[in-house]
Amino acid sequence: MKKTVYIILACVALMLISCDEVSRDDRLTYVEPPEAGRAVLIEDYTGQYCVNCPRATEEIERLVEQYGDSVVIAVAIHSGPFSKKGEPSPLYTETGDMYFNTWGLQAQPIGLVDRMFDSMPLSYTDWGGGVNYELSESPFAKAPVSFITIPVYDTKTRQVSIEVQTIGLDSQAVSGKLQVWLVEDSIDNFQMMPGGSTQEHYNHMHVFRASVNDPWGDALTVNHGEVVIKDYEFKLDPAWVPEHCAIVTFLYDENGVRQVAKNKLTI
Predict the structure, then answer these.
(1) pLDDT band at residue 140, thresholds of 50, 70 and 90?
(2) Is the Cβ–Cβ distance between 131 and 124 less than 8 Å?
């Protein structure tokens, strides 16, 4: 019996000695980051005084139903002349208007699909073709990065802390601008409808509220397998409902939007 115990103790000692001889780094195994599903961003430049804009909303709903809400991510940016009859509408933002003017947009509804700069802007009737191209035919159809977005909301101060982890998936370094937007769903407000009538209690979805970081994003470079972390702070307007808010994160470069993700502000 004693001999058996001595043998067991000797074996355990040998295992401990062997483990001590292997450095911590040598015991770590590199795990290839998994591929991320490609998602597409639709920037819907809209307005409450735009009679045809509800038709664009219907097209977004159709595309979301077809592809899923994690694949087609839309942001309704209230801007341009149909958001400013007399006075700016309640959903209008100066930042959204800056985007509208920078892209040289004219008519509404109009939109950008992944900021494909060689074919923008697009009528809402062409958004379906743009989404299909980005998901299946584009040379950039494979997602070069993925995002882990972690928002923390303080109910007392209405302060939001957002950690964005960008994970490099491409075999080469990926450089671009990281953009973080805040959007709000289920906003009850008026909307001009096709035919010229006004619907006083229209349900406005995925409305652009603000850019959390610089309106044109922050420069970012991420290598294969690397995780780049950015931290942001933002305070919600008293009128916004945190349970209806979400964070839209995307990376874009001269070729357009390379990946986009949407995460609820609160769970």
Answers:
(1) confident
(2) no
- C-alpha–C-alpha distance, residues 93 and 106, integer Å: 17
Q: Give the pLDDT of residue 141.
A: 85
Band of residue 16 on the pLDDT scale cut at 50, 70, 90: very low
Q: Could you name the CATH architecture of 40-264? A: Sandwich (2.60)
Sheet holding 145-153, edge to edge: 145-153, 159-168, 227-235
Q: Is 96 exposed, middle or buried (0-12, 13-18, 19+ CB in 10 A)?
A: buried
Distance from C-alpha of 141 to C-alpha of 40, rounded to nearest angstrom? 10
Residue 74 near residue 42 (C-beta atoms within 8 A): yes
Domain residue ranges in the chain: 40-264
- Of 76, 134, 64, which Cα lies nearest the Cα of 110? 76
Q: What is the pTM of this model?
A: 0.85
> Residue 34 is which amino acid?
P
Environment class of 6 (CB within 10 Å of its CB; exposed 0-12, middle 13-18, buried 19+)? exposed
pLDDT band, very low/low/confident/very high, at 35 (cuts 50, 70, 90): low
